[in-house]
């Protein structure tokens, strides 16, 4: 008698196609909320379609693109079982890079990699991405959910995304526009945003042994709630500012910190001098510094220290710019100025001590 054998299958290897299909169905309603009139078709095609004839109103349209993820912040979401905010972080990291050159965000795609597809969990991640796209003014035109059993644990996941925007050639922002005497305007961050979490997790969770559920008096909430605070999305605020005031450049303060990111948009012959005394970083930055005995310079090159975006504007545009940002609910202030570069100065530096 021949013994019956069972052949190998995708499901036996750990990939659940039906669960993936279920996740797509659950996310459709959220993706629909991001649609712009230029988007053709719906979710489920092999490619997202965007009607490029909408760009005919531009004389010389430049397409701007960016791709990014949210780093090890996803580990905090996994530990807490909170999945509907991490998408805001993803959109911010991609679209706020795009708006730096003055480009209007158009559309975005996402990539979600999981150890095991939990449909409701994947849908919650996409919900957050869709909400972020609405805040950035762009459409979510497609994406991919990949199941990687054996490489990732059943509850492990990672997210990444790519976006596209457009800017008129003669309205392109950047170093070429910056002049001596320009003012540097800082826009407050909502917290840590999505950078430096390897340091933060090492210091607070591993070394200090703190719990994500622990109430932290100086934070006014639990550590987990603070660490999961979504990255602020500045895209529409920046675009509105360019329509109201003259803007020479923006700088998105992400990995590398304030000085390094601001230096990326300052021309070689000039220098951005930023005064720390013009603001007080939030309590979370002090907590990380003290708990890990992290030196200030190390903190500043890793974390945003309370500033998520910076704008460089002519001195005569400062009042109009600050008023425009205030009208949109953006906390902003003059943090420095553009000066001649000395023999030993870098593209930007921080001076003074933080306000208390």
Automatic annotation (TrEMBL):
SUPFAM superfamilies: PurM C-terminal domain-like (SSF56042), PurM N-terminal domain-like (SSF55326). It comes from the Bacteria. Keywords: ATP-binding, Cytoplasm, Ligase, Nucleotide-binding, Purine biosynthesis. GO terms for molecular function: ATP binding; phosphoribosylamine-glycine ligase activity; phosphoribosylformylglycinamidine cyclo-ligase activity. It is found in: Cytoplasm. The keyword Lipoprotein does not apply. GO terms for cellular component: cytosol. Pfam families: AIRS, AIRS_C. It catalyses: 2-formamido-N(1)-(5-O-phospho-beta-D-ribosyl)acetamidine + ATP = 5-amino-1-(5-phospho-beta-D-ribosyl)imidazole + ADP + phosphate + H(+). It is an enzyme of class 6 (ligase). GO terms for biological process: 'de novo' IMP biosynthetic process; adenine biosynthetic process. Residues 59-167 form the PurM-like N-terminal domain. Its EC number is 6.3.3.1. Residues 179-344 form the PurM-like C-terminal domain. Pathway: Purine metabolism; IMP biosynthesis via de novo pathway; 5-amino-1-(5-phospho-D-ribosyl)imidazole from N(2)-formyl-N(1)-(5-phospho-D-ribosyl)glycinamide: step 2/2. The keyword Cytoplasm applies. Its main location: cytoplasm. NCBIfam families: purM. This is Phosphoribosylformylglycinamidine cyclo-ligase.
